[in-house]
Amino acid sequence: MKQFKVLGSGCTNCTNTAKQIEDIASEQRVDVSVEKITDLETMMAYGVMSTPAVVMDEQVVHAGGVPSNETIKQWLL
Asked: The whole model's pTM is what?
């Protein structure tokens, strides 16, 4: 199972990013865990300065904007 964390303030883009990951994982039949993180200290610990940001298996893989569907599909391989 891949573990994702969506870091952000809880804005629409952050919410959409989390839902997009869940929806594409479901389509691809990949088990994922998606956690939304809004705590500023936690975001800073990852070194993230722009949101939404995505952490996959404890590695920052995206920051600043909603990732494309193709990008998310690559993460799920």
From this structure: 0.94
